[in-house]
Structure formats: C-alpha cells, structure tokens
Amino acid sequence: MKGLFKSKPRTPPDIVRQTRDLLVYADRSVSIPDLRESKRQEKLSELSKNLRELKLILYGNSDAEPVAEACAQLTQEFFKGDTLRRLITMLQYLNLEARKDATQVVANLQRQQVNSRLIASDYLESNIDLMDFLVDGFENTDMALHYGTMFRECIRHQIVAKYVLDSQHVKKFFYYIQLPNFDIAADAAATFKELLTRHKSTVAEFLTKNEDWFFADYNSKLLESSNYITRRQAIKLLGDILLDRSNSVVMTKYVSSMDNLRILMNLLRESSKTIQIDAFHVFKLFVANQRKPSDIINILVANKNKLLRLLADVKPDKEDESFEADKAQVVREIVSLKP
Questions:
Q1: Record's Pfam families (predicted)?
Q2: Which one of 102, 165, 209, 319 has the fewest beta carbons within 10 angstroms of its own beta carbon?
C-alpha cells in the first residue's frame, strides 16, 4: 500500500515553477503578510534546495554529465514567465550559498539553446531594463560580484551588448574599474573588456560614433590614471581594440592624434616592463602609419634620440623573435624620418 502514495519525481519545469513561487518569500517587506518568520525561513530553505537542484541539472556533477533534454526543458520553463526577473531582483535577500547557485544558474542559461535558439537573448531583448539593474549592481559591495558575473554573461548576446554600448552605462565603467575594492574593480575591468572586444561589428559601430568622447575619457581616466593596475589593464585593452581589423578606421584616426602620441610616449617611459611592452604595441601603429600628419612626424623627429634610447631598453622577459622584428622595423622607420 505504501508504494501507492509515492510522490512523483519532480521534472525540471516543476522545479523552475516551484522556484518562481518560492521567490516571493525572499523579501520580508513584500512577503505574505502575517507569515511567521519560522515558516518564511522554511520556504527559503526550500528555495535554496531548488537552486542547488537547478544548478545540478545544468552543470551535472562528478558522476553524471548534464542531460540535454532536461536542460532544454528547464531553460524553456525559466524564460516562459518572470523567473529570471524575480531571481535577479530578489538575489540580495538570499543567503550567500543560494546567491552563488543562482548566479551560476543565470550564467549557464545564457548559453542554453532550445531548438537551436538562444532563448535567453529573446527574453532579455524584451526585458532589457534588467541590464540597468545589473549594471548599477557594481556599486553594491555585497552583490557586485554576483551581478557582475550575470551581467558579463548577458552581454554575450549581441543585442544586449548593443543596448549597453548605446546607453550611458558604458561611461560608468570608467569609474567602476577604479573602485577601491580590488575584486570588484577587476571584475568590472573584465566586463569592460568583454563589452569592447566580443561583438566586432557592434563595437566598431560604437567606436566610430563615439570615438571623440570615448578616447578622451579613456586617455584621461585610464591611461593617465595614478593607479598602476588601471594603467596596465587600459594599455593592454587599447592594443586589443586598435589592433583588431574591425576597428581599422578608428585606429587610423587614433594614431593621427598628437595628444594620443604624447600619452603613448610617456607610457613607454614607465618603469613597468609589462606597460612598456603593451605601450610599444600601440606606439608602433603611430610609426607604421603611412599617412602620418606633419605634427606626428615633427614630434617623432624632435624626440628621435630619446625614443631610440627608450626602445633599446624595451625588451620582454623571454626571447620573442616577433617582438624584436617589430622593434627593428620601428627603429628603422624612426631613423629614416626627416622633418
């Protein structure tokens, strides 16, 4: 007789629906009135268990790989209703372990395909205001790393990255990557890099439209920052951006600016070998430009001896034939310049 009353095992959609219903208990201020705190904690414990189960379905474990069909069912149910919105907005009210599990679930769902479609992208396109919530989360010290991970995974979708680049949010990263909390600043820097390198055509369009203010801020706030780590990350990212073929038009304009050249020459003088080498990879673009404006030529000629001495000292720790060949070419070009 006992077997007749066995409960049916829960399907992935069941777990998603129950999770959605349980999220209402997360925020005490909007939770069901007159609910005893002990009962609410019971519900939150159930919610944490569900989030662990969702993570297990999506990621598998040491004993079993994820099952594609279960992942597809879970993903479809998750984006049917407002589960993602509820989970993101209620995240701050969950305990640390539940937050970690929820963050991993949201991150994984951005990559899940249903019938060869990334349905997370369609959902976010219709609920794009969630990106406003996540980007402002960088200012919440307790939540920034959770929100940052979710945000970075969401901008894998081109439509989402375009929204962020076309909004005022992109300007906030000049501040976020210099926050005093090292972990949050590093996370913001990783997100800024993703935003400016992943979707080539979208980034090229953004830079072409916004190059004047963007590079003015990039130079003054990042490349000329008093913070060594900020300068090191910024010069590396600048090289990644300018050396990308998609940004060739923007690159040509950047290397025609006297102010930009002055900043790069100062970075070549840094005591940090890492900054020197990354600065060299941008500096060589100024020298290699076959249509150098006269003021660029004049600066290079006026500083010829200083630059040759500087370049003689710029060497990577390990032998690098490609780097040495580039440097030899730059030196030849500078030596041959005439006012």
A1: Mo25
A2: 319
Instruction: Specify the DSSP class assigned to residue 94.
Output: S
Distance CA 35, CA 111 (A): 38
Whole-angstrom Cα distance, residue 242 to residue 255? 9
Q: How far apart are CA 182 and CA 161, in angstroms?
A: 25
Tokens representing 231? 């300068």
Could you tell me which residues come within 8 angstroms of residue 335 by beta carbon, excluding any fewer than 6 positions away? 304, 308
Query: Domain-by-domain residue ranges, the chain?
Result: 257-339
> Containing H/E element for 113?
strand 113-114
CA dist., res. 332 & res. 140, Å (int): 52
Chain mean position to CA 98? 23
In eight-state DSSP terms, residue 118 is E
Q: Are 166 and 184 in contact (CB under 8 A)?
A: no
**The pTM of the whole model exceeds 0.85:** yes
Q: What is the rounded distance in angstroms from the CA atom of residue 286 to the CA atom of residue 114?
A: 47
CA distance 150 to 147: 5
